[in-house]
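Team,

Forwarding the record for the chain on the shared tracking sheet. I've put the sequence and predicted structure together so nobody has to dig through attachments.
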Amino acid sequence: MQPITITISDKEILDLLSNYDSSKRELMIIKALKVGLIALKDIETVGNVDYVEKEFQKFKGDLDKEFLHLKDEFQNKLEETDELIQKKLTDNFDPETGIMSRVMKQYLGDGGKLSDLFNEENNTSAVSKIKKILSDYFDTDASRVVKLLDPNNPESPLNSFKKELTDRLIAIEKEIKAKESAKEATKVETEKGTQKGIIYQDQVFAEIEKIASIFGDTCLPTGNEAGQLLNSKLGDTVLTLNSDQTGGATLKIVFEAKDERMYLRNLLDELEGAKKNRNAGYAVGVISTKETLRDVKEAIETFRVYPRNKSICILDKETFDPISLKVAYTLARTSS
């Protein structure tokens, strides 16, 4: 901006400047101008702020008036809508003049359509028709349902079902009686065989006891006692050797007596089980005849040794010659 040259002719300003030294008058004029310009600028700003505030207050007043106007219009519309709704409700549901009241009276009032529909005395009503149908099917002994459910009526489905059921029950009864008869017969035979086996076991024990007394051994009947194996009674007689002859060790021999037919393999398995069940070191199978073993009648003769500390001998139930039992006893004793 280019420098500005100012000429002062105002008497009041000149009088004020005359109070200062001439060397300082230029500096004082510059300060006075600066202070004056700044003051004028502040005055203009304050004026602008006042103007804005006045305009805002005016806008706020106009806005409040508009809101009050809208509020009044909304209130009027709401009242008009409420009156319309009240009118519609009255037209439809008024108990005296409403449409719903007239319809209900038409269908449910005296002589109405639904009244006729449920009138039992009206032959054309639904209730009357249903009552007649139920009467035909369920009333009196001659009704259709009674006839259909009568098992003695040849035309009833239950009649054929009754016949089939009766025939089946008769057949089941005969079958049960036949099974009971067979079961009873089997039971009798089993009891005979068991009793026979028990008697033979007692006789074998008596012979073993005689031989044991010679050596000072102890024998006990254990056929009815469970051993170390779960639910096992294998081992009819347990022999404990004389401790004076075993160096104080407890050595046992187990005997299993058989008076019923069986296979050699099965007997050897039982002897192995008897050893474990009675904690014995040797097992002897005692059979009543050669015919006891089905598959080795000739090979066994009266005595035979098998692997794993087992032997089989014959103590004939007719003669009770104890020679083969004594041989088996002695061999088992020396092998234990």
